[in-house]
Amino acid sequence: MKPLWSSRFKKELNPILKCFSYSLRVDGELLQAEIRVNQAHAKMLARVGLISRAEGRRLISALASIGKKFQAKGHQNPLASHMHVEDVHTFVQGELEKNVGALAKKIHTGRSRNDLVVTSTLVYLKERLPRVDKKIGGFQKSLVDFAEKAEETVIPGLTHLKRAQPILLAHQILAYVGMLERDRNRLEDALSRMDKLPLGAAALGGSSLRLDPKFVARELGFSGVSENSLDSVSDRDFVAETLSALAILWMHLSRLAEDFILWNSEAFGFITLDDSVATGSSLMPQKKNPDIFELVRGRAGVIFGHLVSLLTLLKGLPLAYNRDLQEDKPALFDAIHKTEMALEALRVTVSQTNIAEGVNEWAEGEDFLYATDLLEYLVDKGVPFREAHETVGHLVRRALDEGAKLGELPLKEFRKFSPKFNQDVFGLFDPQVSVGRKKTPGSTNPGEVRKWLRYWKKKLKEA
Fold it and tell me: What CATH number is given to the structural domain containing 403?
């Protein structure tokens, strides 16, 4: 199949430059979207009389046959033997000519590859992003199930990677469920700005033919038609917005992965991984490694790189179309593929993760985590906050000087710093008491955590 632009040239493109510039290996991903766009376009051409209704039907039927013939099966590339073709648009044109002969030459009426590729990419994303959303929801469900298993488990919450206050493990897991929900909202919001049809913009200035872009928009599920032909063909902000939303999602996945890596380490010992979701060492027989979480943490950097690459690509382009824009798709497609795979891998891994038997042993090691409980104990008794903070700070200093735990200091030592301390203060040195004393909405109080567990179970079940 010759390039769609070849008639003006006396010579073929140099083979090295073909290898450098041809894009079917990447944009072949758009094939099924391209088929749908072509079918809607053919239907419109017949509707406005630029081709006959019989010709429209033949084109639509032939396009359906091409889509079926080259449907992806498993991980095989159905276009693998066609990499000598310039791009997906040329490929479809060539296959149409095999099917319907000279009639195929009418399919490109009133359009350019410039507006066609943007339209096909939008149709692709309008189908693919809801799939990503569904996989995020599936991962959320696995986290909620894990949080339910961990409902009674108290761990030391950290700030600056140092023990800060006792919190429920379920509370920390649900924090990630909330982050993922906002990630879903961002993708949904991005989709809302992909709802204007670019087809009809042609190369950059529109067409003089009696086209009906509004009809095509309805056929393809767009709410309307793009207001500016230059904008239609030259911007890729919808790709940048998608990559931005995915990058934020991956930032959350990476942070979650880091927490699970820490919790799985001997230093923390909060969780254990099933053998089916861990790997070993080629040298050290005893090792059991959290590789899935580490790969997620590592691949987040790749997704961030895709976003930066695209923004760099776009920042200096004059209007309208420039061939640089061909490079938007490798980043977009790779980010979507990696995201879907990561969400599925994380769902499986978390579902096979258990609470470690010795998860509560940390509580016997130190009790400075209850310093804030002591502070609020004094505030409840009328001591000004700053004064209470200073008092507990002195108590911590005394315990450190004595090489003792806070709870090991006698009551008389407590009362040296404040007469408000009574014997009941020693009841605060208990992780369950600490979390149970929290009163604010959204806190680590067991009642609050149970409420949000119920909320997420219901919300995710209904989704």
Answer: 1.10.40.30
Picking from 62, 88, 109, the residue at the C-terminal end of a domain is: 109
> How many residues does this entry show for the chain?
463
What is the pLDDT confidence band of residue 364, given thresholds at 50, 70 and 90?
confident
CATH (domain of 70): 1.10.275.10
For the CA atoms of the chain, what is the radius of gyration?
30
Active-site residue identified among 21, 281, 337, 394: 281
End-to-end CA distance of the chain: 46
| Same domain? 189 vs 305 | yes
Q: Which of 282, 336, 327 is nearest to 308 (CA)?
A: 327
Virtual torsion, Cα 39, 41, 46, 51, nearest 10 deg: -100
Shared domain for 91 and 182, answered yes or no, is: no
Supply the pLDDT for residue 365.
78
String of DSSP letters for 435-454: HHT--STTSS-HHHHHHHHH
Whether residue 337 lies in the annotated active site: no
Identify the active-site residue in 160, 192, 276, 282.
160
**Enclosing domain of residue 424:** 363-462
Closest CA to 355 of 172, 189, 156, 153: 153
Cβ contact 234:321 at 8 Å: yes
In this prediction, residue 188 carries a pLDDT of 97
**Residue 160 annotated in active site:** yes
Which parts of 42-188 are beta strand (E)? 154-159, 162-168
How does residue 72 score in pLDDT terms, banded at 50, 70 and 90?
confident
Q: Is residue 217 part of a domain?
A: no
Number of separate domains in the chain: 3
Regarding whether 272 and 181 lie in a shared domain, the answer is yes
Q: What confidence tier does 73 reach under pLDDT thresholds 50, 70, 90?
A: confident
In a domain, 219, yes or no: no
Q: Judge whether 127 lies within some domain.
A: yes
Q: State which of 358, 380, 401 marks the end of a domain.
A: 358
Give the model's pLDDT for residue 428.
97
- pTM equals 0.94
> What is the rounded distance in angstroms from the CA atom of residue 56 to the CA atom of residue 212?
15
